[in-house]
Amino acid sequence: MITNQEKIKIWQRSDIDGFFGLFTNNLTNLLVMAGLLLTIGIPADIALGTILPAVGLSIFVSSLIYSAMAYKLATKENRNTVTSLPSGSSVTHMFLIVYLIMGPVYQSTGDPYIAWYASLAWGFIEGVIELLGSVFGERLRKLIPRAAMLGSLAGASITFIAMTPAMQTFYLPYIGFISLIIILLGWFGKVTFPFRIPIGFIAIVIGTLIGWSTGVMDSQSLFTSFSTLTISLPSFSILRIVTGLSEAAPFLVSAIPLGIYNMFETIDNIESAEAAGDSYNTVHTMLADGSTSILASLFGSPFPTAVFIGHPGWKEAGARIGYTLATGFGVLIITWLGLISLLLTIIPIEAILPILVYVGLVIGSQAFQEVENKYAPAVVLAIIPWLADWGRTLIDNTLSAANLNATSIGFSTLSNMGVEYRGMVTLGSGAIIVGMLWSSLLCFIIDRRFIRASMVGLIGALFSFFGIIHSQAVGFNEGGELALSYIIVAVIIVGVHFLNKNTNGGITYDKKL
């Protein structure tokens, strides 16, 4: 029985540092999000008037849930040292949704609303996957090799997250490169700046000062933005999701591994929080992630919420319960008051893009750092389909700008110039799934778990047959030849298994499935 019950505080003075850091993190993500949406052609009334307010709502609800969980834990354990879980929009998914769903659908249809609806359908499905993860998430975590999950995401981060922002960063190097170096010094070099001001904030401020002092920024746009400030509220709609399902169908399968990845990331972060002294319920946390992601899609945002990494760091900095709640409220205010559009006329995009390069570096390197050295080839193998997809995207965009396409030029003509376009399409279609399948296959081969490797081959055959991978269209017998190839691969691996089952040669028999 607890005696001398301590009065649990929702807000402590030490929450100030945590709030400033987490709020700056979320604000940076919102600025990047707005920039990405506007860059691919999503109109401002959709991006700033509906999507971002819905993002603000989902983050606010998420912060309420995690603050309540922290308060409950603090009350249960009778201590004021509990730190609530940090949360916000999933950074990884932010780029993938924009570049791999909204962008392609917009290019193919020319309709930004259809692109938006498709992304909402995708986000809704992923939220459902996250909810289901509360039931079988741990089982999947045991089945899928970590190198396959992280390797495929590394491919996405290197190509679609880091490469284009890196090029844009050097378009105005006196802004972008300087901001990048500040970020590298702080987040990789662990350099502490005066007053412990967050590194991302410093990089943006310095980049902004350079932008205004060199005439890059336009004061007229700033004044116009001031005059057009309006309150923007999210709107509930199921019809948008239903409408987007048809366009999102070819991409829906990618929601499965990304939803699984979000589950794994949440589980990892819960384990990290427990190691720091705060033990949160895994099922409750995953239910919160999934439900707030679904909430976001219903109100107009395709971007799922997630538990952020870094709980031990915030705890060490003194953050407790209130910092997460205050962050959610702050995000709600700036998104609903339309302040993001104003900030974009103040801050040059080149000052923000280096943060994307950093994110790409972290996600890319994580795949190698958090797996055994023997799985490094499997990580590289998972990246290759992403390189093919990225190269095809560049070619398609270039030809489209000249009112051409690969078919009109001729595949043989491109091949004669060293551009294997058909191979790029086949290899890169469904890159995230292809990367995971190939990487899983190699991981099981490395571990000599041949039955599991053959099962991966059969899964590849199934996905290929219906065009989920290696095809730009989903349907019956869309990839029959490739399906047959995967079946042959599975048969060969099973043959290796039985040929070496009872031998003492270089290959050993794995009794585990």
Could you describe the 3D structure shown?
With 513 residues, the chain is mainly alpha-helical. It folds into two domains: 15-172 and 231-349, no CATH class; 373-499, no CATH class. It is built from 21 helices and two strands. The chain has helices at residues 15-39, 44-77, 91-109, 112-143, 146-169, 173-188, 199-213, 219-227, 239-275, 282-298, 311-316, 322-336, 339-346, 353-369, 376-401, 406-409, 411-416, 421-428, 431-446, 450-465, 480-499, and strands at residues 87-89, 305-307. A two-stranded antiparallel ribbon has the order 1-2. α1 (15-39) runs antiparallel to α2 (44-77), α5 crosses α15 (376-401) and α20 runs antiparallel to α21. The longest helix is centred in the middle third of the chain and has 37 residues, at 239-275. Mean pLDDT is 85; it is low at 504-509.
Euclidean distance between termini CA atoms = 48 Å
Alpha-beta classification: mainly alpha
**Helical amount:** over 70%
Shape: globular
SSE string = HHEHHHHHHHHEHHHHHHHHHHH
The profile of the biggest β sheet is: 2 strands, antiparallel
Strand adjacency order, main sheet: 1-2
